[in-house]
Structures are given as C-alpha cells and as structure tokens.
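Researcher: Structure for this, please.
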Amino acid sequence: MARIYSDVSRTFSEFLLLPNLTTKDCKPNDVNLATPISKYTKGQKPVISLNIPIVSAIMQSVSNDTLGIALAKCGGLSFIFGSQSIQSQLDMVRKVKKHKSGFVVSDSNVSIHHTLSDILAIKEKTGHSTIAVTEDGSANGKLLGIVTGRDYRLTRDPLNKKVEDFMTPFEKLIVGQLGITLSEANDLIWDQKLNSLPIIDKDQNLQYLVFRKDYDDHKQNPEQLLDSKKRLLVGAGINTRDYSERVPALIDAEADVLCVDSSDGYTEYQRETIQYVKKNYNNAIIGGGNVVDREGFIYLVESGADFVKVGIGGGSICITREQKGIGRGQASAVLEVAKARDEYFEKTGVYIPICSDGGIVHDYHVVLALAMGADFVMMGRYFARFDESPNKKVKRGNSYVKEYWGEGSNRARNWQRYDLGESVNLKFEEGVDSYVPYAGKLKDNLDVTLSKIQSTMSSCGARTIKQLQETARITVISSTSLIEGGAHDVILKESEY
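Model: Predicted structure, token format:
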C-alpha cells in the first residue's frame, strides 16, 4: 500500500514569524548574513561561505556572466547555466573570474603593429578601455606601452594609424614590480593619480594590471564574495549526461562551486555524477538536488554532496506538479530536510548546508526559509527582472517587462535537467514561457531585500542565521490572516510621488 503523509503540504505563505525580544545590540545593521555553502566538520570552518544567503537559479533566462558579476559583488553567488555548450559556459565563468581581482591578468593586448581599428574592436569585445601593448601582443609579453581612451581621438586619428604612433610608451609609464602588495599598489595609484598600474617582472614582462576602479568598487561593495586571489566567486551548473567532459573544463576554468541541475535529485544518475566529481576532484565543491524529504537528502549526502537543494515544483514557472503530480509544498520540504540535516550532524559531526530552491514570493519568505532550516535560498524569478540578467527587456502596453522561461519549457529544451535515462529530447513541458515586471538594477533591488531580511531578523532577536534557526517562533496562519496582512477595507490612493 502507498505511504500516505497525514501532514498537510504547506508553502511559505501559510506561515508568519512571531517577534522575539529585540535587544539593543540586535539592530538591523548588526545582523550578519554570512552562511556556509560547503559541508564542514564540527569545530571547523567551511571551505566556502556566502556573505548573503542568496544564490541565483541555474537558468538560461537568469544566470549568465553579467548577473554572476553583479551578485558576487553583493555577496551572493550565481550558478552559470549549464544548458549551453561547454565552451560558452566556460567563457562566462572566466569572465566572472577575470572581472575583479586585485591583480588582473590583462585580457586586452596588442602589439605595436596593430592599428586603431584593432584597438576599437578589442574595446567593443571586452568593454575595457585600457589595453596593454606588448612585444608579442600577449598578456605576458615585454611591456612596451599602454593605450587608453586619452591616447587617441576618433575625429582626428585614422583607423589605420599604428599603435606605436599613439600609445603611451613604457618610458612614460609608472609601473610596479612583481612582488608589490595590493596595498602598496593602491597607494602608488593614489599618490601618482593613476587609473591603472602595470605590474612587471625583472625582464619588463607584463604580469598584472591593478585598477583604481577596483579599489573604489571594493569600497562600494564591502560584502563582495572573493576567493583567496581577490577574484569574484562563481558557480556553474552541470548535468548527469556530459559531466565527464564538462566538469574537467569547469575545474580548469576555476569555477568555485558546481551544482547538478536536476528537477529530481533522488536518482542513481545524480549519485554517479557526484561520485565522479568527488573521485576525480576531491577538493571540488558540488551540490546535489532537488529533493523534498529525508530519504532524498540522505541519499545525496551519502553520495558525497557538499550541499543539497530542496524543492520540486515550487518555482513560479515550474509546472512539474501539474504535469507529473510530483512535488511538495516548499515549507514542508525544507522543514523535513532540515530536521534530517540536523540529525545527520548530531550523528556524524558533519554539517551539510541545504538550499531552499523555489517558493519565494515575498522577501520575508527568505527569512522564513532560513528560520525553517535552510542555509541559503536559490531564486530565479527574482533575478530575471534585473538589467543584469540575459533575457530581453520588452515593452508591453505602458510598462516594460523581461522575458522569463523555465528550463523545462519548449523554449529552453533543457532535456538533461529532466532526464530519466530516456532519449535525448523533451517529451513534454515542465516549465512555461512568461514575462516578469522589469525592475532595474540588481544592486538597487537586492539592497532593499537585504534590508528587509535584516530588519525581520532583528525583530526576531537574531543576529545570525544560526541564531534565527535556533530561536525563531513560527505560526501557521489561516487564509483570512493572509488577507488581513495586506491593505484591506480601504480605498487606496494613487501615489503622488
């Protein structure tokens, strides 16, 4: 006989948080949102932690390099979508890794024999206005000069003008020697009023560039998520079909975190994928999922997963529940998996972070997910609205929207995500094609969301996510309570501002 769960399958919208005592040392600004993303043993620290408990979904319409850069600057992590060619995904990963570094390996280089036309083409391709001139045109060749926008004038200089005729030559450059610290390099930049500082070795070969804007950027984004080399962290999605080719390439490109992108993680295919990664790249961080119960969680943990994603069918464009009748209310799923995670930690001393994927409608739902045991949340619709996402912005009526489609839609045709060992095609849709309201820049919106999260945690008397999980009080609400929570029984005025 089938096993019937007597408990109601509940969503985040069916719960509210009760306030705890807010102490004077628990103001919103005192709330620390750091959280682990990789497993760790009791008494030790995780290899990688997030500065904010938010990652972006592994979706074509959400997570590319531009969103990866923007989110990492704010302290979160993007998982570059895997439903594309390996080379295309690698290019996106590398763009994120190269974007921010104290010491940047130059990716815009020419020789003295190139022309102004070549300079403009490189600028168009990379978006960088500082271009190194080396003897052989490589990133580590002998430095002969630098070209910036101040070295030429398009209204005056012909496009065939040789680089050697308008570059700033080496003799006029201020440079740093290899071995200089980042602090010393920044001091030199400021003392000499430079925009960039080339770093060379004893043979005058270019090694790095240090930019003033990177220093300013760090001051504006103090929570940015960086690796040991001061580069932005980035994740990447993989599947259970081509992992033996994709994973080595992603590891070589220095992707920081991998995650198996699957609608159903409780499969032998996912175990094989995770075990392959751990066997061949023991230090690699890999997450598995998605699961909705204790059994699925334990299965992936015993397979070697460093974190586990929770949720099936809760996404705004996911119709897996409608099509297959499989899934679970997101709140119920998180609560059960979190309990299993805590029991596993008590038994083994190994802590496995869990990620709540889907079901986030309002900002406060993030706090509910955390309070219920999630270490961080994954969101798609939320990020699809922003300038930095790769989807198109279009005008509908009097307002702008952005296209948003599921990986299981006919548009995406990401059959690998829903693969159960059948033929290489999408037999039926498990996602829809839609629009979401355009919302502007990621940072502007995310700052508001984080402010709400910190304020809510302050009201709950929690300065950390761990403290929130230990002390939060949560109540089930009725449908009437839900209505009461918004504006009601009034006639709303149109905004005059």
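Researcher: Any notable elements?
Model: The mean pLDDT is 89. The chain has 15 helices and 24 strands.
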